[in-house]
């Protein structure tokens, strides 16, 4: 497992990479999804106004799960989600 990160003026991006070919679905905990580790991370990421995507390796033998999080004050939409 490898972790890669980058910081820009407005966001933090990081990825968790492994050489297993399984590409998980990215969905938050909720109906039909009991809320494992990745579901919890997705819920936190979207709650903070971030995004996530799975990108497969070109050889098909691994993948990276990339997350981006905004830096700076929360937007009105993100702030509303935190209070809910």
User: Count of DSSP helices?
Assistant: 2
Specify the helix fraction band.
10-25%
Largest sheet: 4 strands, antiparallel
Q: What distance separates the N and C termini?
A: 35 Å
Would you report the number of β strands? 4
Going by helix content, strand content and strand pairing, the class is alpha+beta
Biggest sheet strand line-up: 1-2-4-3
What kind of assembly state do the chains in view correspond to? Answer: single chain
Question: What is the averaged pLDDT score?
Answer: 82
The low-confidence runs, each spanning 5 or more residues with pLDDT under 50, are 77-84
Please provide the ordered H/E string of secondary-structure elements. EEHEEH
Walkthrough of the structure:
The protein has 84 residues and is of the alpha+beta class. Helix content is 23%, strand content 33%. It has 2 helices and 4 strands, in the order E-E-H-E-E-H. It has helices at 37-47, 76-83; strands at 2-7, 11-18, 51-56, 63-70. A 4-stranded antiparallel beta sheet has the order 1-2-4-3, covered by helices on one side. A hairpin with a 3-residue loop joins strand 1 and strand 2. The longest helix has 11 residues, at 37-47. The protein is flat, with a radius of gyration of 14 Å. It starts with a strand and ends with a helix. Mean pLDDT is 82; it is low at 77-84.
